[in-house]
Structure prediction request, 376 residues.
Amino acid sequence: MVNRNNKGKKMPGGQIANRQLLSILFIMRSTLAIAFLPVVTTGNARQDAWAAGLLTGVCSALITVAIGGLGPKFPDKTVVEYSQELLGTFLGKFVSLIYLTVFLLLASIDVRVYGEVLVTGFIPETPLLFIISTMVIASTYAAFHGVEIIARNAEFVFPLFAGILLVTFVAAIPSIDIGRLQPVLARGVKPILIGSITPISVVLQMMTLPFLLPRVREPSKAVNTAIWAVVLASVLLAAGASITIGVLGADLAERSVFPFFVLARAIRLTDFLERLEALIVFPWGFGLFIGVAVYIYCGAKGLSQVFGLKDYRPLLPAMAVIWIAMSLHLATDVFELTRFLKPDALGPLALFLIGIPQGLLWLAYGVKTLLSRMGG
Prediction:
């Protein structure tokens, strides 16, 4: 039998509630989209960005089911462990290394975006190395103390993160020009499809789910929780892109490197309260901290299981150095980073990184289940 009778067995160590899992995944899903709204995430759709955001929600939810669906069948195991049970040692470790590569890539992108935002808009004289190193070291420290500490931080940051975004959206509504959001579907469906490729590709973030699931108190509900996180983040994406274009216009939004922060800068709540982007960058930065900490935790945990180590913590210092170096060398500047996130670059890469491991795992599970039923 593929599914052992171990559903009541939990891995030792800290556990997290489903609401904390929702906070983690929602924050991870939203931070990158906010930074590049809508120039990368739904830029090709222009005034129809809301439609690209909704399409992203549907497709991302389906992919999330594919990524996390096997986890509840092995509730006490990470994907590193059950992939070797399904595929054998060699192929299982190959699949595991794809996951670890994803975490390295995503963490490097998040940290580099964080550094570029601060250097571009707030502290231009500060070396990028210092900003990136500070974020990685802080995230590594959180990962050292375990996923339960990360989850508590996410639960604290979530209302602040969501509240600041809501205030920004509401404050921007009076400045929206409805004409900039029209005509609807004037260029057909193709721009919407192209505009949804990048935000759908970023569902790579959900590949952390099979590593977090063994720590969830109710693993049977974890996939539904992840779907809610993806859907809510996609609604945020659609609303944020529409508001940004409605205020700035599609042309200015497309020319801006970080259009959401340009939107926030244009908002004046009173004569004395302006430069709202300074308030946004703090919860946004904390959100990136949560995401990077999760990537480092999952990466170290997975690597320790690949090599049969009892504890992942000794790997963290070396991994932190690799993360810093990768973030610095990922792109020469923010414009090259933006090109990397375009649909024609990120889309095929995400298709490979998601399709290969999920295809192999589900095929192996289906074959073994069928053979088990035929033999039983």
Observations:
- The chain has one domain: 18-335.
- Residues 155 and 331 are 32 Å apart (CA to CA).
- Residues 18-335 form a domain with the Amino acid/polyamine transporter I fold (CATH 1.20.1740.10).
- Residues 1-13 have pLDDT under 50 and may be disordered.
